[in-house]
Design brief:
Length: about 160
């Protein structure tokens, strides 16, 4: 998985979908990426703008109601009661900083996750927040060079 720190530099409501945001996210690349997220019901626009988030960068681009999304903002997500909140990075992180799984620092991510092999589906089942709100994969912490990645608002829940 190619996970990076991103900063939401622009945000608007999707013109054709009331529950979707269209975000421009700075990932330390030459230009910001367009990413579509279903967070309208959970996070107000003003709390999204300039927020530092974790983006899964190597999903195959997908059209969401006519707008191409080039990644996914990772969030703690619970069905009942319905709660969703973007996972947060430590103070001092910069757009483009690598997010990695403790113990798996050396691996190189696939350029694009092959949707036919369902790589994301297989790995996502083990991506969760702990009861302390630590973002983890198979019990190993998600980290940046600056420290632990967390989701304090939605604990003991899947990360999607």
């Amino acid at each position: 998985l190619n996970m990076k720190v991103g900063k939401i530099v622009e945000i608007s409501r999707h013109p054709d979908a009331e529950k979707l945001y269209v975000e421009k996210i700075d990932l330390g690349e030459p230009s910001p990426r367009t990413i579509v997220s279903g967070l309208v019901d959970f996070v107000p626009e003003d709390k999204m703008l300039n927020r530092m988030v974790v983006v899964l960068c190597n999903l195959k681009p997908a059209k969401m109601r006519g707008v191409e999304s080039n990644g996914m903002v990772l969030c703690g997500s619970r069905e009942d009661p319905r709660e969703v909140d973007p996972i947060a990075v430590p103070e001092g992180c910069q757009p483009g900083d690598k997010v990695f799984v403790e113990g798996y620092e050396a691996g190189e991510p696939d350029e694009v996750l092959n949707p036919k092999k369902k790589v994301w589906d297989q790995l996502a089942v083990d991506l969760k927040t702990s009861d302390q709100g630590l973002a983890q994969w198979q019990g190993n912490n998600l980290l940046t060079a600056k420290g632990q990645v967390v989701c304090t608002a939605v604990k003991n829940a899947p990360i999607k």
